[in-house]
Every structure is written in C-alpha cells, then in structure tokens.
Design brief:
It contains 15 helices and no strands. By secondary structure, it is an all-alpha fold. It has a domain of 227 residues: Fumarate Reductase Cytochrome B subunit. It is elongated, with a radius of gyration of 23 Å. The protein starts with a helix and ends in a 12-residue tail after the last helix.
Length: 394
C-alpha cells in the first residue's frame, strides 16, 4: 500500500499536468524522509558526519535529496548509538539502516544499462565465487588443451601459457565496460542530485575538501576522532583502518598494472618483472595490504550489529570482499610460485579472479565508493553557499 505522502505527491503531479512530474518515493525513501524530519527537530548528531549538516539545509526531502543524503552516509553507526529515539522507541529512528536500504536502491536505479540493474540483487557471495571459479576453470581447460597446464614455463614467462595479445583481448573489453557502466551510472546520479544541492558548479576548494574526506575516510571517525561502532557501543577505528588498507592496497595493485603496461608498450620490457622492479614492489605491497584489509573487513562484516545496515545487502558485500581477497591472494601465490610446475595453474586462478572482479564491479559494492565520492563533492559545493533556510550556522 502506498503511503499518504506518496499518494499526495502523485495527486500533485497529476494536478499539475504533463509540465511537471514529481517523483514518487519508494517505501525506503519515505522512511528516510520521515526520520530526517525527526532528526531535523533534534539535531543532537549534527557534528557526527556530513549527513546532518546537509540535512539542516532542508525543510523537506524529495527523491534527489534522499539519494544524496543516503550516499553521504558512511554507515558508521554513531548516530544510532547516540539516538534517544532509536528502537525500541516508538519513533524507531535508525538512520544507518534506513540510509543503507536507499543506497542499495540507488545502485539499482542508476545501473547502466538499466536492464542489468537486477544484478545488484543477485550479486552475492556464492555468485561471485562461482563466477571466479568458472572463469578459472575455462582458462585451466584452455591451458590443458595447449599442454602447458603443469610444468615450469620457460623463464617463468606467463606469456608462454597465454599470449600477451590474447590476455589483452580478454581483459580490455571487460575493464572498459566496467569503467563505462560505472561512469554512466554516476553521471545520471550527478545530474539528478546537482539541482537538489544548489546547482552551483564544482570548484577547486570544494574538490580539494571532498578529496581529503575521501582519501582520509574522514567520516568514519565518528565525528570526534575515536571511531564509529561495529558490533556494540564501543568506539573503534578498525573499520577505517581496514578500509584504508583495502583501498590503498587496491590502488597500489592498479598502479603496478599501469606501470607494467607502460614498461611493455613504451620500453618493450616484457613481464614477468622481478624484485626490486617498480611493478613488482607496488604489486607485492599492494597485495599484502589488500589481503590484510579484506580479511579485516570480512571479520567486521560478519560481526556487524544487525541494526547497522541492510541485511539483504550482506551477500553482495561479502562477495565483493571475497573477490578482492582472492585476487590479491592468488596474485601473491602466483609470484611465489614462479619457477614451479604450478605456475600455469596459479595464473589461471588469478586471471579468473581478476576477470570476475571487473565483470561484477559495475553491479557490486565497488559502486558505493564512486557514488559516495560524488555525494561528497556536491556536499562540499553546497556547504560553501548561504544556508537557504537561514536556520542556525553551518
């Protein structure tokens, strides 16, 4: 049954004719709007994160406002543990959970192509690992047909197992599609939330502030520097630290691949590279960091308080964490297995994990970092302008 607010908006839209369409809120969006009205009257949590200062600039919450606020939320749980209206209070205010449900909806709504948005609902742990295993098995069969599945490759050369051009032909389309799909999705998201966040263009100071918030994970400190919550009322910086290990580990691995590509095409230096070459240093440090970060996030996710997020998204979260861990672990195993008969088998496992990671990237948890960065950019722009409702100071 539609809520009274949704019916009111629909009636207003019909009364105004075809010139103006008022988006109808979903049940999850309506719940965020209800809770934000309560929080706007209380404002106890105003210093916790970016959500609450942004909230105070609004008297009502349309679809674009709710999508913007939901993607500003870092799901740290600090506001839930501080809230006097949290369950079992009759108001039932649980901002982290309500925001998480809307974030999941935004990933679905802004998926590109739209028909593939349903993959967000099915991209769980089992599917992610099954896809990695299937791709690895395909590569194993291909290597076996060439007779190069078991036995040391000449000079530890990966390209004696799979030619360089074949690998590029397999991975480049998957990677480029992932970039395109994510780019198209966040472009639509940006276009929708910009009018709701003043409409002012992005500027250099705002971009610098948002970049600082992203790179430091500023809003996982609970607003006071002691951290947020995970499975109880205790403050912890563990989520922030493990996110840092995961993010920077991934970026170092990506940098290793980028440098190796430059070596290959610009200088004609073919892989594999040995220590202390730059690609290998970046890859080893990044791989260890990524393994440590994802192992920590897995443990925290399994222990997370059930009121902190949307339980329906947990399989997607765990699937993404597992693929990142498998990618880093198989990459390090491949390096340690050089010169052994298992080299080709380890290469197949690593390539299968990497391809599964990029194939699911546009429709998995990776997107939350992209959408959250866009929301932080708009928040940094909006906060530099006078408060449109003139209530209090920013």
């Amino acid at each position: 049954m539609q809520s009274l607010e949704a019916l009111t908006r629909e009636a207003a839209s019909l009364a105004d004719g075809p010139r103006r369409v008022i988006p109808i809120l979903s049940a999850a969006e309506t719940e965020v709007g209800r809770q934000m009205q309560i929080c706007n009257a209380c404002r106890y949590c105003e210093g916790f994160c970016a959500v609450f200062p942004a909230m105070t600039r609004r008297l009502e919450f349309g679809k674009a406002d709710i999508h913007f606020l939901a993607n500003l939320c870092h799901n740290c749980g600090a506001c839930l543990h501080a809230c006097q209206y949290a369950p079992p209070h009759e108001f039932g205010v649980n901002v982290p959970q309500a925001m998480a449900e809307v974030r999941g909806q935004t990933y679905l709504d802004y998926a590109w192509p739209p028909a593939l948005g349903v993959l967000y609902q099915r991209n769980g742990l089992t599917l992610s690992l099954a896809l990695a295993a299937a791709l690895a098995l395909f590569l194993v069969l291909a290597a076996a047909m060439k007779g190069s599945l078991w036995g040391a490759a000449p000079g530890d050369n990966f390209y004696s197992v799979f030619p360089h051009n074949l690998l590029v032909g397999m991975f480049a389309p998957v990677f480029l599609f992932a970039v395109l799909a994510l780019g198209m999705g966040v472009r639509r998201f940006w276009r929708d939330i910009t009018p709701a966040t003043s409409g002012a263009p992005l500027n250099r100071p705002a971009a610098a502030e948002a970049a600082d918030a992203v790179l430091r994970l500023k809003y996982l400190d609970g607003g006071h520097g002691d951290g947020c919550h995970n499975d109880d009322d205790a403050y912890t910086l563990a989520r922030r630290r493990f996110h840092h290990l995961t993010f920077y580990g991934f970026m170092l691995c990506f940098a290793a691949t980028t440098v190796a590509t430059l070596y290959h095409y610009a200088f004609g230096w073919a892989a594999p590279y040995a220590l202390p070459s730059l690609p290998k240093l970046l890859g080893v440090v990044g791989g260890i960091s990524l393994m440590a970060g994802t192992a920590g996030l897995w443990r925290l996710n399994r222990r997370r308080h059930p009121l902190h997020g949307d339980l329906a998204q947990k399989p997607m979260d765990l699937g993404f964490i597992a693929l990142l861990f498998l990618t880093s672990a198989s990459g390090l195993a491949l390096w340690l297995g050089r010169g052994t008969p298992a080299l080709a088998l380890l290469l197949c496992l690593h390539l299968g994990a990497v391809m599964a990671l990029f194939a699911t990237m546009p429709y998995g948890k990776f997107g939350h970092g992209i959408f959250r960065t866009a929301a932080l950019l708009r928040h940094a722009v909006e906060k530099r302008l006078p408060n449109p409702i003139g209530l209090g100071a920013d």
